[in-house]
Design brief:
about 250 residues, alpha/beta
Length: about 250
C-alpha cells in the first residue's frame, strides 16, 4: 500500500520543480546574452531536480535500482547548482548598478571629483531621486522630464525636447556641451547628470552620442566636475553597454 501523504508530498514537489523548469526554459531567450547562459544552466539544474523528484514518485510503485543514490545525487546537484546560479545572477545584476550611497554622502565615502560614473538601471527616476538627496554643490541636469526634479538655487535643469523653444533639441549635442562647459566654469564642484541617453541616441546614433560623452567627460574631469550618466541597459545593444562600461566608472 502506498502512503497517501507521502505520495501527495512527492507529487507536489515534483510538479513544483517541473513548473520551475518549464518557466525558466520558456524565458531564456528574453534575457540578454550575458544572463542567458546562466538561465540555461538554471533550467538544466532544475531539470535534474525534476528527474530526482520523479524517481522519488515512481519508487513508490516500482523498483528502481540505486534510487537512494539517484535521490541524493540529483538533490545535491540541483540545489547546489541553483544556489550557484542565484549567486552568479546577483553578482551580474549588481554590476549594472553603482552604489549611489557612495556619491555625495560623507566625505569618507565620497569619491573624488573629476570622475565620470555610469548607472545602469531600469528605475532611473527613483535612482536619481536617491542621488539628489545626497548631492551637495551645483547640479546641472539634462533630462526629458524636468517636472520630476525640484528646482533650487544650486540646480539647473535643461529640458531636452524638439517641441518647445524653451528646451534644447536632442540633435544639438554641441549646445549641450557648451551649456555644461559654461555651467562648470561658473560653478566649482559641479555635478552634471544626464538621464536621457536613450533619447539622444535615437536622434543622433550611438557613435555620435558616445563621442559627445567622452569629450564632455574629459573636459569635466579637467575642471574637477563629476559626470553621472543614467541609462536603462535594456534599451542598448550589448556592445554599446560594453563601450560605456569601459569608458565610465561603474560597479
Amino acid at each position: 500500500m502506498v502512503n497517501i501523504t507521502s505520495l501527495f508530498y512527492r507529487v507536489f514537489l515534483f510538479l513544483m520543480i517541473l513548473s520551475l523548469t518549464v518557466f525558466i526554459s520558456l524565458r531564456v531567450n528574453k534575457y540578454p546574452r550575458n544572463l542567458r547562459l546562466l538561465m540555461m544552466l538554471a533550467a538544466v539544474f532544475s531539470a535534474i531536480g525534476t528527474l530526482g523528484r520523479l524517481v522519488d514518485v515512481l519508487v513508490l510503485f516500482i523498483h528502481i535500482p540505486f534510487s537512494n543514490e539517484i535521490h541524493v545525487i540529483t538533490h545535491i546537484i540541483s540545489i547546489g547548482g541553483l544556489i550557484w546560479i542565484f549567486i552568479s545572477m546577483m553578482k551580474t545584476l549588481e554590476s549594472y548598478y553603482i552604489p549611489l550611497t557612495s556619491i555625495g554622502t560623507s566625505e569618507e565615502k565620497r569619491k573624488p571629483p573629476g570622475t565620470a560614473y555610469l548607472v545602469l538601471s531600469s528605475e532611473i527616476t527613483q535612482e536619481i531621486a536617491k542621488l539628489m538627496r545626497n548631492l551637495k554643490g551645483p547640479v546641472l541636469i539634462f533630462t526629458r522630464h524636468p517636472h520630476l526634479y525640484n528646482k533650487s538655487n544650486n540646480v539647473k535643469i535643461v529640458w531636452i525636447t524638439t517641441a518647445d523653444s524653451k528646451g534644447v533639441s536632442p540633435t544639438a549635442l554641441h549646445v549641450l556641451q557648451d551649456i555644461a562647459i559654461r555651467f562648470t566654469s561658473e560653478n566649482n564642484g559641479t555635478t552634471v547628470i544626464i538621464d536621457c541617453l536613450e533619447y539622444l541616441i535615437i536622434y543622433n546614433g550611438f557613435r555620435s552620442v558616445f563621442k559627445f560623452l567622452v569629450s564632455l567627460k574629459d573636459y569635466l574631469m579637467i575642471k574637477g566636475a563629476t559626470l553621472i550618466l543614467f541609462v536603462d541597459p535594456m534599451t542598448l545593444k550589448e556592445s554599446e553597454v560594453a563601450l560605456l562600461r569601459r569608458e565610465f566608472h561603474h560597479s
